[in-house]
Amino acid sequence: MPEEERKKLGVGGMLKGVMYGMASHGNVTAALRTRMYMEHLFMFITLGDMLGIPVLPPYYSLRLLPYAVPNVKSWKQRVFRERDFTDALY
Amino acid sequence: MDTPALFVVLALIAYGVAYFWYSRWYDRAVWAPDAGRTTPAHMLMDGVEYFPVSKYVLWGYQFKSVAALGPILGPFIAIQYGWLPALAWIIIGNFFIGWLQDYSSIMVSLRNEGRSFGPISYEFMGARGRTTLLWFIILYLLIISATFIFFIATFFNIFPGVFWATIGVLATGVIAGRLLYRLRWNVGLVTLLALVGVALSILITTDVGVFHVAKNFLGGNTILFWAIVTAVILYLGSVLPLPSFIQPINYVAFFPAFVAIVVILVSALITPLTGVHLQQSAFKTFYPGLNPGPLWPILFVAIACGAISGWHSLVSSSSTSKQVDIETDARPVGAGAMLTEGLLALASLAAYMVLSSKATGLGSVGAWVTGAQVLTNPWLGFLGTAILATFFGLVLVVYALTVQALVTRFWRLVSAELAGDGRYAVLGNKHVATLIGLVIPVAFAINGSWWNLWLYFGASNQLLAGLALMIVSIHLAKVRRDTRPSVIPATFMIVTTLSALVWEIIVFVNAVVTNKPLTQAGTTLAQPAWHAVALTFNGIFVLFGALLLYFGLRMTWSSYSAYFRMLRGVQPPAPQPSSSVAMGGAGRK
Asked: Which helix (H) or strand (E) holds B384?
């Protein structure tokens, strides 16, 4: 967050942030993580054949390719990250 | 002078000094955070695990993640020595060690690409270090589960109405989840409905004598009955998808828990006005007997969260550090949340200080609820004693239940990782793993020697804190910074907790040798017919303690070896690309 935005937050914004952090932030990140695993599955199904795993005929992969391409970079980063048992805590 | 307010104010001043002076000095002199340095949240941003979050949000998240049953129940055992030693440990422990561990855990992870303690310990101590950590955490999870299941079962048993209030909160959570995720209702409206649901759960179910039903049904063996009921709830929490059960329940349960913290803290601060006085001696004894044991080391493991807790280091390094916006946010988040948790421990201590010594005997597990009622009655008495009792009882249960549901789920994930896809793959099955992770703790819980379980939990938790501080010290030695503020507390914690573990083993060995098993009065195992079973359980606890001690010693050896290696300037061996314990890795083939 840029410095000006941080200063502009004020007491109301600060309290809102604290309440959100206590009540919902964990839930939001858990929901994001669930979506991440679904996306991994989706990318694997759609682009699997390009990785040498024939899970979907190339015709459909090519039809879906334009929708999947914007996510490829962040997907690669997430799916290749080594996860440890201590990462699974929250 | 004879009200708890003065001591809470004293702690506020001490924590103020800790935050504005000591933590600022440590921050600048040792870690030297740089607001311009790119944090993992930016460097590895993926919008899921790594993304920058405001320090206020992160503070709230960190506080909610670390504040649970520990700061509420820990002071209960500690008050057996008098309230002064407990107060001193909560203030001094947090001042020199507690916040430093939480903050440094965030910083060490920030400086290591946001990695959690598993990979960091692997880098510093090799595969052996991480495997030992894994096994230590396995035992730690079992003992947390046993302790929390015992508490939930006991609270269901001694506070009529709390069970139905809990069911009300669970049902409200599940309905709120459906409304939010399936029907996509507005979050504000759902929250409002959830608050009404929680309030109704307390009001309608107060004084429902359901525990009599259980007593009639099982002939007095109610702890076992409630432990099984608790296990069923936890089983659902472990195997059902997060958004349909645990996640919305945690959200709904947050509100009564938050209200209770504020109410207790305010009640403690206004005691000069409400006229609630101290009823306990400042100092009772250094050695109340073999069980619970001498003030040192037992007091220092009895109060974990609130003074220092190893669990916090896992939270700090596994999730918080991945979302820190700029490095200078780590101090308000890590140190700020921990010092605030110290206040919660003090408010809980205040609830015990206003009760008589008889009311806080080791058998009175629900004393916090009584103390909370005494503190709040002068200004909230119009609500009625029964409603206050149900409310505070419910708060204890939801604190334990929400954390325990996560612990059971974590156990399942770790079991799947350990079992891999080889010969023992069935042990990693989500139903089998969850059942194992519940049956063993339930068996431990119904043994009923609850403060011994708590002390095992406290000792393993505090030992984890000492080891976390050692990992911090290893990193600081590697980058040639001052390690004294972390290695001295680490050594104190490790020596103290290993001594506490040895003491607890001696207590159980003594019980076996003298043929006087440790049980909780009123439970089945306390009856003469179950003598042999109780004795066997005590024998199992000896073995369990010995295992904890073994892995604790192994971790200690590995961490000090790595620390001295770093001081000598010997770099650790280059980490290998994969290992058998990496999540999502190959597992055991």
From this structure: none
